[in-house]
From TrEMBL, chains A, B:
It comes from Phyllobacterium salinisoli. It comes from the Bacteria. This is LacI family DNA-binding transcriptional regulator. SMART domains: HTH_LACI. Keywords: DNA-binding, Transcription, Transcription regulation. Residues 8-62 form the HTH lacI-type domain. GO terms for molecular function: DNA-binding transcription factor activity; transcription cis-regulatory region binding.
Amino acid sequence: MTSTKRATSLKDVADAAGVSVTTVSRLLNGSLQLPSETKLRIDKAIQDLKYEPNPHARRLSRGRSETIGLVVPDIANPFFATLVSAVEAAADTRGLALSLHATLNRPGREIAYLRSLARNHVDGLLFITNHPDDGELAALINQTGKVIVVDEDVPNARVPKLFSDNELGGYLAGCHLADHGHRRVIYIGGPQEMISTRRRSMGLERALRERGGPFQVFRYQGNYTVEFGREAACRFLDEGIQGTAIFASSDEIAIGLIEVLRARGISVPHDVSVIGFDDVGPLHLFAPPLTAIRQPVRALGERALALLLETNWAEPESLAFEELLPVEIVVRNSVAPPSKS
Amino acid sequence: MTSTKRATSLKDVADAAGVSVTTVSRLLNGSLQLPSETKLRIDKAIQDLKYEPNPHARRLSRGRSETIGLVVPDIANPFFATLVSAVEAAADTRGLALSLHATLNRPGREIAYLRSLARNHVDGLLFITNHPDDGELAALINQTGKVIVVDEDVPNARVPKLFSDNELGGYLAGCHLADHGHRRVIYIGGPQEMISTRRRSMGLERALRERGGPFQVFRYQGNYTVEFGREAACRFLDEGIQGTAIFASSDEIAIGLIEVLRARGISVPHDVSVIGFDDVGPLHLFAPPLTAIRQPVRALGERALALLLETNWAEPESLAFEELLPVEIVVRNSVAPPSKS
DNA sequence: CTGAAAGCGCTTACAG
DNA sequence: CTGAAAGCGCTTACAG
């Protein structure tokens, strides 16, 4: 009963309307000067039969799928969830479906998705990695085409790339800290080979340098995770590092960091100032409300899809460029002048 | 260069291996007694040509797509993001692709996705709605089949349904509050026609009733959003409602609520106790850390997919059942005995 | 065990 | 303007 009886096809509609399938197909695809009266008959047949085209047949025939692929490290992470949400919304607006895949830090899956794209499974791919590439990914991307690298770099891929302005983010954080008198800053970043971490760190240093005088940055780099936030916090605490402020390079890192600070009775911003990065989570409800650099997450997703569709893939030499989206600082209550300890 | 040259097909492989496409196809699909030596030749040809089957052709031919659809209200919402993540992981394990769609409260989109499923676009659908149905959805679901209703009910749909044990959640919250001496509780729920809100409210009342003595529940029902959390908070504050505890029926509602309490200088749990529901966000870092009922979000996603695959869709009479997944209470620091005011 | 052939349901030159 | 027919790349009875 509930199961699939033979679905109504183009042929059925054509028969019902007394025309050929060619005509119906053309009507459906808009490549037709409507002869008005037959058009009505066809429309009626479509209504009556509740006809809907079989997408598999259409795709096979047309050689494209009207769906785009999106590869992200982890969907449950609020940053990526927001990005996925933005891409889905933008794709839907354009009548594109979304095929979603999470890599969960397994390089093999990245390769597999790229391959399936190559076989025209999807019309294009938005690709987000979160670990260094040994060159395999870049090679695959270059021979595949139609992929936009988003958020984090794949070094030798010659395709459009879209990132947040990470250097600016680091710089804004650095300025804010420096303005409050901080000169010794602990930086908790992501994987050190990754562009996001490197650029944020560079921005931080540039700010500190520009403000003049001696300064010091203590670097802890690992993953953009709660676990690493905790781990880094324990390490610098146990090492007795004398930073007066901490720049946590993601919401997750900030969460892990704050858990530890709280557990050890270290007060923010009284004992140490903290500034975060991402600002996707409800940082304003933390104790204290966390000052952070906000990434333009939705804009990243929307722009990435636009790039995928706008790019002229036939001109390889114009493909390799990098576009940066601005970030901003959201000042709350976790940064204060260093305490006199 | 980078663009798609004609992809290598089954025919190419067959030619290269000196066999028919039938044979290659069979090998690929496992329905073959391997003749060992030809098998090797074919495997080699596949390697050499880097052959990968065209999924569109396969789908058209087989009449199924090896992809399942997932319809959620809003991907950026951490609750749904986590659910999507769990479904994707489970689907990937089984070699299924995921087609993701957000409805964003637009009923028309729900209808459209259901229709496209009916046309065998996907092999099955996990469906999550977040607003009452006038019957149209249920009708469509019943004639479509192969859909699992998850998280929130579609009343007359005769398909498997999977929910959190919302009544239990309300009950656990109620017990915890009652144990601390609360008898006048403000309940901030979602849309009042929805099953989740009704059941949580029932559980809350059952707990209060079981503990004996007079009690009172003040109900505010709207959406599971930050905005509604704020709105409800302002309303009961302005109305001077004398509740000693608040049961906020989602993380989002709790966030809005806490924003308002904080803005008005009302201290939790000193002035009023708060207990939340969902526990997906970093509630442990809130000020104070929020006690909440935790939903088994990932389990919900995994089980939903399992149900979709396990169900024998050919037997309509066995289809209509409801399965509940248990919730638990996570006690933190936002509930205390009522203050003597 | 293996192959020729039909069929899945569209699209699209190519002819009227 | 409209149709017959080939083709997209698979799968799968049906025959050897």
